[in-house]
Amino acid sequence: MKLFSSVNDVTDLKKFIEEALILKADPFAHKSLGKDKTIGLVFLNPSLRTRLSTQKAALNLGMNVMVMNLDKEGWALETEDGVVMNGTTVEHIREAAAVMGEYCDILGFRSFPKLQDREEDYSESLFNKFVKFSGVPVVSLESATLHPLQSFADLITIEEHKQIAKPKVVLTWAPHVKALPQAVPNSFAEWMCKAQAEGMIDFVITHPEGFELAEKFTPGAKIVTDQTEALKEADFVYVKNWSSYKDYGKTLPGAESWMMTNKKLEGTNNAKVMHCLPVRRDYELSAEILDGPNSLVIKEASNRTWAAQAVLKEMLEDLKK
Amino acid sequence: MKLFSSVNDVTDLKKFIEEALILKADPFAHKSLGKDKTIGLVFLNPSLRTRLSTQKAALNLGMNVMVMNLDKEGWALETEDGVVMNGTTVEHIREAAAVMGEYCDILGFRSFPKLQDREEDYSESLFNKFVKFSGVPVVSLESATLHPLQSFADLITIEEHKQIAKPKVVLTWAPHVKALPQAVPNSFAEWMCKAQAEGMIDFVITHPEGFELAEKFTPGAKIVTDQTEALKEADFVYVKNWSSYKDYGKTLPGAESWMMTNKKLEGTNNAKVMHCLPVRRDYELSAEILDGPNSLVIKEASNRTWAAQAVLKEMLEDLKK
Amino acid sequence: MKLFSSVNDVTDLKKFIEEALILKADPFAHKSLGKDKTIGLVFLNPSLRTRLSTQKAALNLGMNVMVMNLDKEGWALETEDGVVMNGTTVEHIREAAAVMGEYCDILGFRSFPKLQDREEDYSESLFNKFVKFSGVPVVSLESATLHPLQSFADLITIEEHKQIAKPKVVLTWAPHVKALPQAVPNSFAEWMCKAQAEGMIDFVITHPEGFELAEKFTPGAKIVTDQTEALKEADFVYVKNWSSYKDYGKTLPGAESWMMTNKKLEGTNNAKVMHCLPVRRDYELSAEILDGPNSLVIKEASNRTWAAQAVLKEMLEDLKK
Description:
The structure is a homotrimer.
Chain A: E1 3-4, H1 13-25, E2 38-43, H2 49-60, E3 64-69, E4 77-78, E5 91-92, H3 93-103, E6 106-110, H4 118-123, H5 125-134, E7 138-140, H6 148-161, E8 168-173, H7 183-197, E9 202-206, E10 222-224, H8 227-231, E11 236-240, H9 262-265, E12 272-274, H10 287-290, H11 297-320
Parallel strand pairs in A: 1-7, 2-3, 2-6, 4-5, 6-7, 8-9, 8-11, 9-10, 11-12
Binding site for N(2)-succinyl-L-ornithine (chains A, B, C): 142, 176, 240, 280
Subunit structure (chains A, B, C): Homotrimer.
Organism (chains A, B, C): Daejeonella lutea
C-alpha cells in the first residue's frame, strides 16, 4: 500500500478488518517491522484522536514518530502553482512535502476544506500535491473530502458489535453551530456503500432536504429525508453534522429537531449510536445517549489505533519489498 | 498507585524518598518496566520543567511518551455537565478524557485554577473529572490547588542537602507582579506538614496578613506574619508568591519588602534557598542568592525527574499486577 | 566536541564531511551510541527542516528527543542581566538553560537576531548565555549570526555533486519581501572560505552595493557587485537573500533583477543551484530552476540529517570519555 486516502485503496475489505482485529488482540506482534522507520504526521489543522491514535499505532509497530503541527508552528504553505511568492506564504508545498519525504519513510497528512470553492475542495488538489511531491507512502489523516482512518475504525466497530449478520446502518444528519466539512459523512458513506456491496450491511442515509452528499460517495445507498422512517429497525445509527454540498458550505439554522435522542431510538432495533467525535453534547446528540449503554463513541475512537496500525503495517511491508 | 494528586496518595513517605534517590543513582535500572507502555501528558497550560522532567522519567523507564498541549493546539474543553454545547467549547472532558485513556496506559494532566471562584477551584472538579472519565492511572502535573510532583522533588532535595537530622524549613511568601495560584505553596505545606508529622523537619510558614493558606493543607505548621522572626535559624527557605485564599485571587501590590535577599539570610542558619521556578529575579528573590552558593533552585528542578520516575514506577508496577 | 556553533568548532573539515557521508551510507551503524541519552531541541523561532532533520539524526543514533518550542508554548525568556523581572518575561535564561541542561545530555538551541541592534546581535549574547548556563554540549540550530548545520549540509552537498576537483562556488544575493537575518549567508561564507583555504573550492560572493557581509566571515572570498561577472563559469550557485549588515537590517526594495533564472545560468558551467529553503518561488529563485534538473535544494535539505548526525556522533563520543 502506497496510499491510503479512500476505501478504494483497500484491496480486500473483509480481510483488512480481520487484520485490524488481529492487531488489536496482539498489538506488539510486529514491533520489529517498524524498526528504524520514521513516520511524520503533518497537520494543517488541530487533531486529538487522529494524532494520538496514529502515533500509538506507529509506536506499536516500533516506528519513530515526528509530529509537525504546521498551523500552530507558524508555517504558512503556498499551494498554488505559478504564483510569485511575494506575500505571506513562506514555503511552497512542492518543497515542504519533498523535504518531509526526505526525513520520513511514511507521511501522514491532514488538511481541511475551506468550504468556499466546491470544485477546489473536491479536487483534493492540496492533498494530492502533498502525495505527489512527498515521494513516499502517504496516509490521509483527513482530507478536504474524506477521512478514511475514521471510517475504517467505524466499520471495525460495527463488525465487533453487530448482533445480526447484516445489520442496518443509518447515517443521520445532526444539527451543529457551525459549517462543518463533508469529509466524515462522505467517507462513512463511501465505506458503508462498499460494505453494503459486499453484503456486510444495509445502508441508509437521512438528512434534511438540500443536504445530499456528493453522489460519487453514495452508490447504492438508500437516501431518505424522513429521519423517523430512516431510523426504523436500525441496528447502528451514525450521527454527524455536515454543511451542504449543493449550496456549498451552507448550514441549516434552527434544525434542532434533528438531534439524536433516546426517544428517537425507540423506533430502532435498540440501535448502537456512533459519532466520530468531538461531539456537541445535547446539540448533535443527547447527553443521555452519550452516557448510556447504546453509545459506541469511545469504542470507535479506541479502534482508530487498530485502523491506523493495519494501514501502517501494510505500508511497512511494502517498503520492505 | 492509581492516582498521584497529593501527599495522601503516598503510603510511606520516607520509603518513597528513598526510592527516588535509588532511581537517581541508577536511572535505567527499570527500563523494561515501561516497555510497550504509553504515557500521555496533557497540558491545559504551558509547562517547561513538568513536561520535560516527566517525559524524561517516562523515557528512563522505557515508556513511550505522547504530549498534548491542548491549549496551544486549539482544543477548548467543556467541563460543565448539563450544558447544551452550542458555544465555543469543542469537546466535553467526558469524551476527551475517555478517549485519551484508550490510547494511554497512564495519563498526566495539568490544569490551573481560574482564581475567580474559590469553591470551584478547590473542588478540583476539572481534575477529578479527568481522573474519573479517563479510566486509567493519572498523575497530577499540577492541579488547581496542588502540585505534588514539585513538592515531592522539593522534599527529596531537602533530604539530600540537610546538615542536621531535623532541619527547620520555612515557606515564605514573596512579591510578584501578578496573581498566582496557591497550588505550589498548598502542596509544599501539605508535604512538609506530613514530613513534620513523621519527625523529619520543623515547618514554619510566613506571609503577610491575609495570605493564610487553606487550613486543610497546613496541619501542625507554625504560621507567623513576621518574616524576620520566621527566618531565624532556618536551614531551608522556600520562596514563593501566592495570591490570597481569603480574599480569593487578590494580590498585594507594593510588597517588595518581602523579597528574599542575602541580607535576610543573615538571620538564618546559612539557609539553603529554594524556589519551584520560574522565578522573577530581583523581584521574588534576589539575583545574588540565585547566583550564589545558597541556591538549590536548579537541584530542585533536577530532582523533578526522580520524583516523577518514582511515581511512574509505582504506577507501572501496579499495572503489571 | 562540546560546542557546534561555527566552522571553527570543526577540527578537520575534510574528515568531517567524510564522516557525514559514511553515516549517510549506513545511518543506523551507531545506534547504541545514543542509548539512554537525551537531546533537547529548543526553538525560540519556528523550524521545519532543522527540527525534523536533527530529530531524525538523533533517532538514528538511538537517542531520545524532546522538543521545546518556547515561542509557541508561551515561555518568554528574559535574557538581560541585572533586570528587575517585573514585566512580561517569565523566566531568565540563566535558570531556563540550566534546568534544560539537567534533563538533557545534549541541547540544541535556535534563536534569531532582532535586526535592530547590530552589536547586540553580533555579540551572540543570547546563544552564548544559553551555552554557558546549560552546562552541557550545545549544537546551534541557528543563531543570530550563523547557521552551521545548514552550511555543513551545503558543503556535503557540494562534495557529492562536484564534477571537477576544485569547483567554483558563487553565493549570490537574491530579492525578498522582508528583511532577513545574515545568519545563512554569513555561515555559508564562513564554511566556504574555510573550504577554499583548504583547496577544496574557489569562492565568490556577489550582492548589490551596501550588502557586504561582516568581514570576519569572508576571509579570502572574492567579492563583486556585478552578478553576471560573478556567475561566469560557476559550478554551484547558492541563492539567498539577506538584509544589510552596514545599514543594519535594511532591505532593498525593487531588486527583482537579482532573482536567479535559467537565463542567468547560461553564463555558468551548467551550475547546480542551491538554496537553504524555505524559498520564495519566482521571487528569489525562478520556479523553472526549482523544478528543473539543476536544482539541489531538496538534496541539501536531505543532507541536513547527516550533518546533524556527524555532529551529534562526535558529541556523544565525547560524553563517553
